[in-house]
Design brief:
This protein is of the alpha+beta class. It has a five-stranded antiparallel beta sheet. A hairpin with a 3-residue loop joins β1 and β2. About 45% of the residues are buried. The chain folds into two domains: about 230 residues, Hypothetical protein af1432; about 100 residues, no CATH class. About 5% of the residues have low confidence. The chain has 13 helices and five strands. The chain is about 45% helix and about 5% strand. The two termini are about 20 Å apart. The protein binds fe (ii) ion (FE2) (2 copies). The site of one fe (ii) ion has 5 residues, from loops.
Length: about 350
């Protein structure tokens, strides 16, 4: 039986605790924050000791329970970004708690407001846009959070505000959101745009989501923090599906950093794609359905041995070359198994 690592255990405990807490708050039951805080402490420790595994867990998609997984993923991504921004100790744990509770104002709202294949209508949107104020109010009134829970309340209130003064709730442009809110804004946008269903949108490819965030970065995000986040994720973030020039499809399992790994990640091959693919990069989403056609399962479940795409041969040329990214949601390839069983 595979060993449950500290990082996987911390992720699972946080997921279970936050799911229960949102259910309790929605039902008007007392909220249990102590267990949640212990789980966040272990997640913060895992972010320090085993960041790669946490990022792989946060890249897993499907399997239901989208909302509690969204909260847990935003917590993971915020902790890893906060750590890079120099936060540690109590500050990092506060950031993790604030990230987990950022959407607490949604508890009590019907799930089908957020989960589904269509955009919310005007009435739903109006209700949805009240969640920062409701969240702030809830955290103020809930017993069990410590007296110094100001960061959690601020993030619940500010996580949809943009540095250029747009976003909601409305505010004076001169007053910038707190640094925790700016970190959670980035983690929240990345996770929701790469997950299908959250806010009624279809999932974007991880590299596309990041590219889009960078394109609109000036008004939407704190540029320094977005830079740290983008360096952490790399050009092809963990969970991306790549097509190599020899038509091998691979799952990105480690990416980012200052060196060549930023654009040339560590991958696991999952399938040979025998049919030629015209335009994997930038093609229409619908055309990607062809990638799955005729796939031969040459690799074990979970993929073949890890390959470092920055590896060069004796003449200094790269051994493998990336043709482009594929859309995992349109391919019949087991991205999850490759992410969960990855070991170097
Ligand atoms: Fe939100
Ligand atoms: Fe969110």
């Amino acid at each position: 039986m595979p060993k449950i690592t500290d990082a996987a255990g911390a992720y699972a405990r946080t997921f279970i605790r936050v799911k229960r807490l949102f259910e309790d708050v929605a039902a008007g039951q007392p909220a249990e924050f102590r267990g949640l805080k212990r789980a966040v402490l272990s997640l913060a420790e895992a972010a320090r000791a085993d960041e790669g595994r946490l990022l792989r867990l946060a890249a897993v998609r499907g399997y239901g329970d989208e909302l509690p997984r969204h909260y847990t993923n935003v917590c993971v991504l915020s902790l890893c970004t906060g750590k890079r921004a120099g936060l540690s100790g109590r500050r990092l744990v506060h950031l993790g708690m604030a990230a987990l509770l950022h959407d607490i104002g949604r508890s009590g709202m019907p799930d089908d407001l957020f989960i589904g294949n269509s955009e919310p209508d005007d009435q739903a949107l109006e209700l949805l846009n009240t969640h920062p104020v409701t969240g702030f109010d809830l955290l103020l009134r809930l017993r069990g959070l410590e007296d110094d829970a100001v960061p959690e309340m601020l993030v619940a209130y500010e996580h949809h505000m943009n540095p250029d003064g747009t976003g909601y709730p409305p505010r004076k442009a001169e007053r910038q959101p707190d640094v925790f809110s700016r970190i959670v804004r980035i983690a929240d946008n990345y996770d929701s745009s790469t997950s299908s269903g959250v806010y009624g949108k279809l999932a974007l490819r991880p590299d596309k989501a990041l590219e889009l965030m960078r394109k609109r970065s000036a008004g939407y995000y704190d540029l320094e923090l977005l830079g740290a986040f983008a360096r952490m994720m790399g050009v092809y973030p963990v969970g991306s599906l790549l097509l190599l020039s020899d038509l091998t499809a691979c799952v990105v399992c480690e990416s980012g950093g200052e060196g060549e790994g930023y654009a040339r990640p560590v991958v696991r091959p999952v399938a040979k794609v025998p049919v030629p693919v015209d335009e994997p990069e930038g093609g229409e989403e619908g055309s990607s359905a062809e990638y799955g056609e005729g796939v031969e399962d040459e690799f074990p479940v979970g993929g073949g041995p890890p390959e470092d795409l920055s590896e060069r041969d004796a003449s200094g040329r790269y051994v493998r070359n990336i043709t482009g990214a594929l859309d995992p949601s349109l391919c019949r390839m087991n991205v999850t198994a490759a992410l969960l069983n990855f070991q170097l």
